[in-house]
DNA sequence: TAGGACACTCGTATTACATCA
DNA sequence: ATTGATGTAATACGAGTGTCC
């Protein structure tokens, strides 16, 4: 792409040089300034980069704003905390990522460490909600505790142990026998829809949002986190594809313009090389520069006969003639 | 106050499973 | 029934940032 642009600049210089040899640019009658043309082309491409087409990569399925509260997790025990608001954090949080990362307040928050599925050997629905017996919420009870680190460690250890237990139980006999198979969760349509809906609201989640959503969906916070990570990756991939397509088109445009400029350069060189109008052996009348013109529509350099130049009709445009020739 | 340790989250690449044609 | 393609949940890893000591 850059090579094309450089080549085009060189062409432009060459054209300008030839133009200067023929006379001034104005006297040439070039109706379209090549530099403007090139600049326009650059602008086209730069505009593309400045304003990349944004994809609407959000769910294609129309999702009702008044999404059902229970979001129909496969076997959901009715959660008393669920409301008709699909985003329970919404009125509460509006914080940027930098504010949400690992601050004390986040640890202080009612962090849900509900890993595991409550035991799901092979063949059992992986969407099974975490068993309340196995995966109770852990609440950091003393936010202002001096021993915050100890609390964290306890939570972390608890989480690891629980994950280990849940993983073992969820992986079933294969894992117990030393196999490495992993059961893959399939989110229900309702779960996916709510995740998409919340992604539309925030492409990233702070811990509280994550926990609230996980609770609502009867998933582990980690699963929600992973889903958002994958979703962001998919969005970026799609956007990259769109950008790539735009660049491809821009490249094609530049190639075409390059080809056209090459042709124009050849024409100008031919004019320069060709003997001017010979009146006699010792007198040369140079070809009037004004006989050169450029069609604004097809941007071709053409010549005009001297009659037309000498006696232009009312309303006559040099462009219209050359355009008509196109 | 500077700096190391730590926790947390992110993006990215990859793997592995489920589904479908 | 088998197989390859596709979609996607899950994992691994390194980087960035904030907090604590």
TrEMBL record:
DNA-binding region: 180-239
Keyword Repeat: no
A cellular component term, taken from the record's GO annotations: nucleus
Entry's Gene Ontology molecular function annotations: DNA binding
Coiled-coil region(s): 244-274
Localization: Nucleus
Renumbered residue ranges of the record's region Disordered: 71-130, 166-187
Domain of life of the source: Eukaryota
Primary location recorded for the protein, binned into one broad class: nucleus
Keywords noted in UniProt: Coiled coil, DNA-binding, Homeobox, Nucleus, Transcription, Transcription regulation
Pfam family, one: HALZ
Xref: InterPro entries: HD, HD-ZIP_Homeobox_LZ_Class_II, HD-ZIP_N, Homeobox_CS, Homeodomain-like_sf, Leu_zip_homeo
Biased composition regions of type Low complexity, renumbered to the chain: 71-84
CDD domains: homeodomain
Ranges where the Homeobox domain occurs: 178-238
Cross-referenced PANTHER family: HOMEOBOX-LEUCINE ZIPPER PROTEIN HAT14, HOMEOBOX-LEUCINE ZIPPER PROTEIN HAT9
Family listed: Belongs to the HD-ZIP homeobox family. Class II subfamily.
Name of the protein in its database record: Homeobox domain-containing protein
Native source organism of the sequence: Riccia fluitans
């Amino acid at each position: 792409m850059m090579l094309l642009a450089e080549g085009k600049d060189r062409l432009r210089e060459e054209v300008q040089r030839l133009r200067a040899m023929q006379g001034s640019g104005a006297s040439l009658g070039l109706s379209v300034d090549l530099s403007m043309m090139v600049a326009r082309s650059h602008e086209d491409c730069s505009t593309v980069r400045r304003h990349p087409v944004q994809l609407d990569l959000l769910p294609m399925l129309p999702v009702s704003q008044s999404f059902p509260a229970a979001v129909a997790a496969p076997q959901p025990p009715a959660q008393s905390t669920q409301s008709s608001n699909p985003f329970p954090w919404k009125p509460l949080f509006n914080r940027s990522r930098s504010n949400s990362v690992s601050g004390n307040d986040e640890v202080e928050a009612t962090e849900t460490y509900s890993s595991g599925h409550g035991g799901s050997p092979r063949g059992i629905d992986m969407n099974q909600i975490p068993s309340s017996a196995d995966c109770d919420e852990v609440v950091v009870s003393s936010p202002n505790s001096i021993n915050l680190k100890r609390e964290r460690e306890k939570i972390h250890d608890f989480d690891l142990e629980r994950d280990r237990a849940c993983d073992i139980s969820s992986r079933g006999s294969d894992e117990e026998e030393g196999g490495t198979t992993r059961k893959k969760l399939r989110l229900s349509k309702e779960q996916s829809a709510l995740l998409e809906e919340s992604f539309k609201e925030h492409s990233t989640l702070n811990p509280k949002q994550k926990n609230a959503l996980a609770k609502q969906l009867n998933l582990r916070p980690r699963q929600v986190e992973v889903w958002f990570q994958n979703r962001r990756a998919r969005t970026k991939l799609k956007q990259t594809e769109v950008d790539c397509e735009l660049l491809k088109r821009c490249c094609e445009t530049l190639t075409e313009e390059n080809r056209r400029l090459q042709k124009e350069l050849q024409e100008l060189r031919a004019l320069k090389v060709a003997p001017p109008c010979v009146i006699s052996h010792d007198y040369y009348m140079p070809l009037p520069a004004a006989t050169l013109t450029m069609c604004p529509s097809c941007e071709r350099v053409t010549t005009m006969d001297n009659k037309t130049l000498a006696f232009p009709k009312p309303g006559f445009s040099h462009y219209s003639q050359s355009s008509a020739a196109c």
